[in-house]
Amino acid sequence: MNSVPRETPALLPSGVPEDGPAPRRRPIAVHLIGQNIGLILALAILGLSLIIFVGLFAFEQHRLPGNFEVTSSVNNTMPLALAACGQTLVVLTRGIDLSVGGVVDLTNALAAIFLAGSVLHMIIVSVLILLVGAAAGLVNGLVVGLGRLQPIVVTLATLSIFQGLAIRALPQPGGVVPTGYTAVLVNPNVPTALLFVVLAVLGWMALRRSRLGVAIFAVGNDEQSAVALGIRAVRTKIIAYTLAGTLYAAAGLFLAANATSGDATTGDVYTLTSIVAVVLGGVSLFGGRGSAVGAICGAFITTMIVNILFYAHINPLYQSFYEGLFLVIAVVLGSAVGSFARRGR
Amino acid sequence: MSASPDAPGGPQQAAGPPATGSDDPTVTAIAGRGLSKAFGGVQALRAASFAACAGEVHALVGENGAGKSTFIKLLGGRLQPDSGTILLEDRRIRLSGPADATSRGIGTVFQELTLLPWMSVAENLLIGREPRSSLGLIRRSNLASEAEELLARFGITHIDPRALAAEVSLAERQIIEIARVIIRAPRILLLDEPTSSLVEREVAWLFSRIRELRAAGTAIVFTSHRWNEITSIADRITIFRNGAEVGTFTGIDETEAITLMTGRRVDALYPALPPAPAAASRPPALDLAHAILPGSRPAGSAERAPAELGFSLAPGEILGIGGLAGEGHRELFLGLFGAPPLRRAVIRIDGRPARIAHPSDAIHAGLGIALVPEDRKSEGLLLPLPVRDNLTLPILSRLSFGGVIRSGAERRMTRDIIGSLGIRTPSAAQPVGALSGGNQQKVLVGRWLLAQSRILLLYDVTRGVDVATKHELYELMTRLAGEGRAVLFYSSDTEELAHLCHRVLVLRRGRIAASLAPPALTAEAIVAAAMRETLAV
């Protein structure tokens, strides 16, 4: 395999003398930083918001945040973190999924209605609900992929459809989620939900190293080229939307477990917040670039922003205003650092 | 089916000298018989046939729109034929897609580059055959070293496998594209205009790879618009015209080939130049001094002092700009158009100082640019819009009354310019994107003629354009110069510069390395001036 090149003379780049020094290469670290700048920024912003939060908290409460604060932050973020992972898969294929809210609503409502029962019953119902999410995503994927329609239009339509189904299933907030179920998914006493975050990260790393992962990135980079390279673009998109739907259903389950009851409208916010998390996480809305790890960071950043606003005693009515402001600042910062990194070559 | 060529294998190899590699020219490696393909209402191929043998380089030549690329896409599994059959080693096959073609040993370098911009060179090179762990997961940490090793085996050591594809130059992208196909050791290699963005040194590299593959018995199909490349590498030449083959030849001279390609006689490729304008008869149309070209200094350049550049261009003159790629030509042309402006440059138009800080300044100063960026996918044209809109865009204010476009005047103007430039389009309402490359160039030139530009900056307008349309563009250039317009012309084809220009300035590191005029103006002299430093060091 690694035989010395036969008699092949080295090809030199144009403009370089035949016997001059070989052109210098950029160090590996520069490549790594440049190609993961979005993720690095997301981690930096998360770190910064954590520091601000801890500072504010210590100032207000004269102690450091303890088990309760960590656990409730993690548990509250879980649905968004999962929804953002799903949104990442779709955005990477150069799509966008507005149906997130509808799928979370629907699965959340179904969970509240059907979960109560024995352990085996809960497991079966959970799997069925995940399949409902997968089916919702499959519908999106089939229409986008086979119909060659704009993802934004398709998922806007299915958003309404899924919301309608959720309301039909659970017209009034209610239902019940057994405490045992809550304890497994979002234990209110210890941040065991972090295990699911670790699982999500591991799943992402495996996907990134799989044929499917390569195909998702390739389709998002340039669909025409991907097809010319033998990648089945339509199939890849259908799978991406289906996986995303499954993750939204998981978000719906976590939401139900956290609230211990169901509401067919609480999931609506996840359409927009999942996009916010994806953007904060450095995933390119033009597809082909980004990481679910970044999106998970983005989800935690939004939680931190809410926490900071709370401890800064900012009127909750201003919450949206400040969230939007933070988002704009983060995005401007991200693009400034990105273009600076490009120029710094 | 009857005579399987690969089964015996050895005997021929042992018997004859493997010098040329074409052990048995009767063995057909790949063939298309009676292939037809239509796009919408346009018939791209009409029952075209073509066959290539193992161990030969078979050139496919013809005008743009003759159907070469479509034919290659059919053989490469990228498109499905409407009718006709594809034969692989005399067996009928149906290709379900590019992956199917690849698995059958057909490797294709398509005309449009297919690199994924935000993935690394290594990921692009190894896509579909990445190193995997025992769990079946890709070993991402091994990608770069494996890619490096593979590239080195083909003599490519200057491309960093860790860089993103978007970060490397167009020529390097083309080389990666070629390398990606040849590392898969295809038995049939289809190359659709692989040299259009390569300089001579890189073309030589590609040709030695092609010769190696030919010696190993690979069938190679190759298209190019550069005749000298075709004659230097091709064993046989098949000419396409209007979606069907005209004939296959082993030796054919250029004029005869052009006649067959176009179906009409072209007496000489290069038209006669109008007489050079007498010196100092009028103030120069364009005078540039103290220009510093930004960036584009080759890596490892020790020189730090900025090089200044200046020249003047007379009305009626065609001034050529030559030199190796990446020596600042692009910056110069863009700079004269104000996009972005040249640093500290002093520009005089017709003897009067002019400030060009923005393209609109250039338009109002009477400059016009027909600029073709290196990537042909984006051309400074609005591809989905009709020819008419593309032509009249910069002069809409002149064409409208109270904010409303006078469509009668617009129609008349566009009809005239389409006629006088010979833009081949079914109507002025045709989207520009549907025209061939050469005709798109003509629309760009026409736009600036309508804008009454007297100075035309033509940047590599003939790249990737077929011979017949090239000829029309040459005639257009000389006619415009004859009418008193000043033309600044950059071309990557030194022959063109030598034949079409009154004078040629060779740029090297942002300076004028040589100014050549007849009789010293020859293609060889341009190349020598461009390379002098390289040769001397």
Can you walk through the features of this model?
The complex is a heterodimer of chains A (345) and B (537). With 345 residues, chain A is an all-alpha fold. Chain A has one domain: Orthogonal Bundle (ABC transporter involved in vitamin B12 uptake, BtuC), CATH 1.10.3470. In chain A, 71% of the residues lie in helices and 0% in strands. Chain A has helices at 28-35, 37-61, 67-92, 100-114, 119-147, 151-169, 179-185, 194-208, 211-221, 223-228, 233-259, 270-280, 292-311, 319-343. The model of chain A is unreliable at 1-6 (pLDDT under 50). By secondary structure, chain B is an alpha/beta fold. Chain B folds into 4 domains: 27-118 and 170-262, Rossmann fold (3-Layer(aba) Sandwich), CATH 3.40.50.300; 120-163, no CATH class; 286-366 and 454-536, Rossmann fold; 382-452, no CATH class. In chain B, helix 14 (407-421) packs across helix 15 (437-450) and helix 17 packs across helix 18 (523-536). Chain B has helices at 10-15, 68-75, 98-103, 121-126, 140-153, 170-182, 200-215, 227-233, 254-262, 329-336, 359-364, 387-392, 396-399, 407-421, 437-450, 467-482, 494-500, 523-536, and strands spanning 28-39, 42-53, 57-61, 83-88, 91-93, 106-109, 188-192, 219-223, 236-241, 244-249, 286-292, 308-313, 318-322, 346-349, 352-354, 367-371, 400-401, 404-405, 455-459, 486-490, 503-508, 511-516. In chain B, the strands form 5 sheets. Chain B has a 6-stranded mixed sheet with strand order 6-7-8-3-9-10, with helices on both faces. A 6-stranded mixed sheet of chain B has the order 16-19-20-13-21-22, with helices on both faces. Chain B has a 4-stranded antiparallel sheet with strand order 2-1-4-5, covered by helices on one side. Chain B is globular and about 70 Å long. In chain B, a hairpin with a 2-residue loop joins strand 21 and strand 22. In chain B, 49% of the residues are buried. Chain B has 18 helices and 22 strands.
